[in-house]
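note to self: dont lose this again. the chain is below, predicted strucutre after it. 367 aa total, dont forget to put it in the shared folder this time
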Amino acid sequence: MRCLAVLMLTWLGVSGAAQAQEFANDQFHAFNMAVVDKRILPAYRTLADAAIELQQSSEALCADRSQAKLSTVKSRFHQFTDAWMAIQYFRIGPVEFAFRSSHIQYWPDKHNVVSKQLAKLLSKQDPTVLEPENFRDVSAGLQGLSALERVIFSSDSEEKLLASADDAPYRCALLVAIAHNLAWMTNAIVRDWESGKNAFRTQVLAANDESGSDFFADPTELAYQILSRLRESVQAVHDLKIGRPLGKAGSRPKPRRAEMWRSERSLENVRQNLEVVADYFADTGPLSIFSESESAHERIDSADWHLGAALKALAGIESISATSLESAPTIEALKLAQSQLDDAIESIAKLLVALGGSAGFNSLDGD
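---
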């Protein structure tokens, strides 16, 4: 059904191009700058600051492997992940340079690659691999949150990190290497956005010039990309963050397919993702600049309503976990949320068309 809807929306793109004449480039530029300056850059700065605190707490744990220090590391993990969930959707610009987004979080991991590579690394205990310059070249799965979560939240992680076992110091050194790498990547993202004549923010500004910029021919190009990423974020929640643990119709739920199930963050991540996207469609959100158009206003309101309905459905459940997925009310709530997200995805796609873009491409659709 979604493929048919996409084909119909692509066909409607012809009329969308005509509707886009309602909007001036200056409106798209104002939208882009509001997004970049009020949402994207503050979110990346928060992420980079959280990464530094995570690194510092990891170093403190390795200097004194105690329960109190480990608790602080876990708290800093949650703080960093909160910051990542607030910007996870924005797969544009510096976060995509050198595949940084997948290095920050390698997920979904359909073949449990991270666990296999982590076991191999811990069995060899090669200290040279953990040196910053070398660690940047290891597999993406080992460099970020997916490996970090396993190191500090696996069922036996406390025993293996805090005990006097032979490999405890190496595990702690690995924890520091991952945290250091996250700090290095996230601070590099901020620098790439803000520093130098080729700063990505400068490229966004230049898109409004007559000649465009190195990345964007005009402001509409970035605006359409932002909307596409918002739609893809909602679809990722629908298909991956809810759909994978729910399992296919007629099969049993698969709770270990949920995102970050070890740290019990699966539902919180879903909520945070949807709240960030919903903020764009609120009355005072950045998309309100297009609300003078009746067709755009209708679709903005529709997306806002359905995202709110999905969040309301999720408010009645406590977690996405092995226990909760045995509960019929939880399953019903998750399916209701998915239904609302389907409608939100369609509304965002129609908004893209109303603004002159195309709803035909989605990077989550696969081959």
